[in-house]
Structures are given as structure tokens and as C-alpha cells.
Amino acid sequence: MKKFYALFLFVGALFVACSEDDTPVDTPDPDPIVYTSGTANFSNYVAVGNSLTAGFSDNALFIDGQEASLPNMLASNFALAGGGSFEIPFMADNLGGLTLGGNPISENRFFLAFLPDGPSPTPVEGQGTTEVSTKLAGPFNNMGVPGAKSYELLAPGYGSVAGVAMGTANPYFARFSSSESATVVGDAVAQNPTFFSLWAGANDILLYATNGGDGVDQTGNLNPATYSRNDITDPNVFAGSLDGILQAMTANGAEGVIANLPNVTDIPYFNTVPHNPVPLDAATAALLNGAYEAYNQGLLLAQSFMLIDADEVSKRTISFSAGDTNAVVLLDEDLTDLTGVDPGLINMRQATAEDLMVLTSRNFIGTLANPADPTSINGVAIPLADQWVLTPEEQEAVETALNAYNQTIETLAGAYDLALVDANALLNELKTTGFPQTDGSTVTATFATGGGFSLDGVHPAPRGYAILANAFVAAINAKFGSNLPGVNPLDYTGLYIQ
């Protein structure tokens, strides 16, 4: 009996021990992370730039896009380390269209419509209610102005309502400029910022590129007053403008961050429409080849007179075949001009894989130049004009200017002791490999479905802006010793719905 009693004591002790071991132990919560600004002062942050700063997306500026702008994401991080309020010159609605005197002057934002011939970016229906002449009371921390070139940020009267009517001023800045003679940079500096971001210069080459090189490379021309809208800005003009902006922004001791410019050939606008999208049956191909026979023979005759060489004859010879991958026919101003010899020998050739078709050409190729003539097919019987294609020579002009601009940005970042963001490398990575996310998805530059770019094929989607914001935060942390957390791209949409 004593043995059983001893056994009961042992088992009882075992139960007590197990009971004690199973008792949950309260662990203290980890100390909250304390975010600091390092040597920076985020108390009054002002952002200067163009559409990429304003939050432009889906071919328009609208409230949701402005709330998901890159600077607003940065401001949310700065608020964790002493940052103040961030005022935005909001549009009147989520449609995005502008009016002047009640008359529409810009389209609404795009949404992805599923049309009979496939998904297509389509303006949202309705009339935008953002009236340019209705002035907003500032000041505003987001000084991003869609469409602004580098030198225009310093231009007096760029926010004049009267100037908008004459085509000499910017309708977005006109809504919130402090006066009819104000400059973007002047209004930014008047706020006495303690910290600023500057991302400017994209439009100095982008407008040339997105219009298929239908402009002039103004390298060597130091007078921007003589430029047309789609021209490439002279690199010295760009450098002087950027230096002037930075002198003004840092005059009172503000610190800041600057980003270089991406290569336009990395965006979906130039990587969505193939150079060879024309389907033909055998009979139609034979008919077209017959129609172009005189042109092809004329090229051989020009070669016999040594006006062009065999390589150019090969480049210009037009030939179609049965199948779905016929190359479009286009005009190329860099070909030898033979029209003085034969007016029929226009500067015409078929596209190659080296040509970049602009996104908007997808809705133009295959349409009729003359509705009464079913054979007047654009891109087939009627060559595409310059605006629809960025040729290799035009790409080279863009790249040359881009390299000069980015060298200037790097030099000035060092001179003014700014954090530098390599946006060029980031957008190339978005195109080539994408950015994996914690949910297993990957944000890419694929048009409409990749999540990185909006439906205009040029501007990031909110998720793409978030990836950029994290690059800005990383550069700021590295430069100023702050420990800002960045943002989660998955908190932002990859595609707005209607």
C-alpha cells in the first residue's frame, strides 16, 4: 500500500509539473520602432516636378491619383519623423478632364474597356468639372505640374489663366499659381521648405519620343523660346535650368532628394505594339506586292545611278506575304531623299524589330485614310507618318540627350549634397525582371496587366509609384541617416477600375 501511495505522490507531482509547464508566459510587446529623420528636417516638405510628381495616371490627373502620388507617399513617411502636413491642389473630381470657360480642353482618365476587338484604354464617360479659371487658395506642398519642361518651371506667367487661353501657359499650374506672373519654383521657394524633392526633365525628351520623333533635336540651340512643344531640349539649357531650380530651392538651407530620368524605351508606350501586326491572305499580299512593284523597281534604278547603295535598296524594298506578321509601311526622314529624281520614290520602308511603334498606333494601324476607299489602309497601302514610330535614329537622339541630362543630374546632386535616386535603373529593372511582392505576385512593366504602369503606358500606376517611393526612401535614409520604413506596394492598386 505504501508503494502505491508513493506512486500516487509521483504521479501527482508529475501532473503539477506538467500543469506548471503548460501555463502560458506573458511576453512583453516589443518596443515600438522610433522613426527618426537623421540629419534631415522633414517638417516642411515641398515636391517640385512634372506629371510624375503630380500623380498623373491613366492619361489624366484626378483625385485618387493625386492621393496615390509619389510625394504623398513620401510625406506619409516623413510624418513618422517630424514631417508636417502635405497640401495638394486637388482636382475637382475623379474624371480628370479640364475645362476653360466651361469648354473641355482635356480628356477624362482612361479605364480598361472590353470592346468587340479586345480590351482597350477608353476615356471615362462624363464631363470633368475641374475648371481652370477657378483658382485654388494655396500654398501647396505638391508643386508637380503635368507637362512642364525643366525651363518652364522657372518661367514667369506659366500659371496664367489668360496664357492658357493663348497656349502659352499650363492649365494645371494656372489653377493654383499664386499670381498670373508666378513661377512654379518661386511658389515652391516662398513656402520656405526644409526638405524638397525634385524630379524634372522627363518632358524635355519624352514629348519628342511619344510623338514618334515628330520634333527637332535642339542641341546647340540655347534659346528655348524658339522651341516647339515636341522638341528635345538642348543639354546646356537643361543643365542651366536644373541648376537654377536647385539654387533657389537650397538658398535657405533646405536639403533634398533628386532623381535621374528613365530611358523612355523602357516604358510600355514603346513596348506593346509590334512592328509586324498586319494579317494578310495570299491574294491581298499579291495585290499589294503588285502595287509596290514600281516603287521597288525605282529603287533599283536609283542604285544603278549610284544615288543609293545596295543596303538602302534592301532596307527600302517593300514585300508582303500571306500570314499574320507583316511589317507596317512607314515614312522615314533619315532615308535618302529621291523625290527630286522621281516623286514616287518617297522616303518609305517597312518597319523592323528595331523600330518602336508608339502605343497609340494600335488604334490607327489598319484604319482607312479615306473612308470611301477600302484600299487606303494606314500602315499598309498608306505609310505611317513620323508620329507613329520612333526609329533607331530617333532613339539615338533621345538616348544621347538622356545621357547628358543624367550626367548633369548626378553632378548637381553632388554639388548640392542631395540624395540621388537612380530611377533609370529602377524602371529598367521593372521592365526586365519586375519586382516580386510578399503575396507571390510580381509587379512588371507589362501594359495593362503588369501593375507597374497605368493605361497611358507612360505614367506609373499607384503600385509603380509605391516602388519608386521606396527607392526615394532608401536614398534618403542612406544620405541623411534616417530610418523611414517605406510603403507597401500591395496597399496600392495596380489598375484603377471605372
From TrEMBL:
<dbReference type="InterPro" id="IPR036514">
    <property type="entry name" value="SGNH_hydro_sf"/>
</dbReference>
<protein>
    <submittedName>
        <fullName>G-D-S-L family lipolytic protein</fullName>
    </submittedName>
</protein>
<keyword id="KW-0732">Signal</keyword>
<feature type="signal peptide">
    <location>
        <begin position="1"/>
        <end position="19"/>
    </location>
</feature>
<dbReference type="GO" id="GO:0016788">
    <property type="term" value="F:hydrolase activity, acting on ester bonds"/>
</dbReference>
